# Entry
Amino acid sequence: MHESEAAAVARARTGDGDAFRLLVERYGRSVFRLGYRLTGNEQDAEDVVQETFLRAFRQLDKYDGRASFHTWIYRIASNYSLDLLRARRRTETPEPESLVSTETSADRRVLSEQIGDRLRQAMDDLSSQERSAFVLRHYEGLSIEEIGGVLGIAQSATKNSIFRAVQKLRRYLEPFSGGAR
Amino acid sequence: MIPHEHLTPDEMVLHYYSEGCREPEERLAECPQCRAEYRALQRVLNAADGYAPPERDCGFEARLWERLRRELPVRQAEPRWRLHWRALSVAAALAVAIFFIGRWSAPNRPDPALAGNDVLMEAVGDHIDRSQFLLQEVANDPRTAAPREELADLLGANRLYRQTAAMSGEPAMADLLDELEQLLVEMQNVEQTNGEVREMVFKLRVAAAELRKAKSGKEDRL
# Structure
């Protein structure tokens, strides 16, 4: 952790709003991106980012500095996102899968939109743990060890979650990805 | 001959993410089937990069902090600019007066235009410091948006300095003040975004440093 960040955390613990604002400004955007990729929903992502920092402030005393602040805040964001996903899956009826156009258009924009649709379907098809592990590895660049720390699972379970996520993505995307690049 | 052992899909995933404990490069180099499989995996995972969150505008952090601040038991320093505002305003007005007095009513000066320029630069330096002070506060804490009458006061002074700078053969300074004026006008009408304010603060900081450097160089020569 940078010295200035450690100092900001220490001051924020004493209730210093300016210090905590520094942390919010540094990580707000990346927590939003993580929240969006985990929930797939802009409104939920806004909710994730706000709730994450509220929880972080209230739990600052529990932060022991062993993990980076970045990893610690991601853990809070991931846990809250998973709670949202679980709650949503309990209450929502799954929507029927939208039909992907079977037209063989040469228009790359259409193809790109199809890939985007398939990607969203694939992400929604992942379990909460698979989605979290994949997002943290693929988009956030965390190591498997760090992801295990964030999600509170063993490295072997982390790897298996990523493997399963990639398998599912392949099933959804392989028919399209040949022409994507 | 030893039977050829292909890379497993899981090994390929680990290799893609640079997490593997084996070195699959050789295998990929020598086995067309592994290579084809790996390329297919690369295409899928590269396509997954397209899952991009919507971009947040540059006021995102400010709005987030505003929402959080209402919920959190935090304390914050009072904005300092309130205390200095009136004093700076008077100083700027006095500096303008000094400039005009120095420029138009100092017959004994060897070069009245140069002397006037010095006073102008002094006055503009104060004005820039004052603007920078306000913009920095707004950039740091958007909830302390400047009161409209004080913003109007700063804007009026800025117009005067800009016109004077243009008439006195200081086009670079006139341009900077023109840009500042546009920003101040926008701040009057709408809540200004943090990014633009920070950019302007940076430019003002550079300009203020250059003015101070030029002034100290002149004093050294004297």
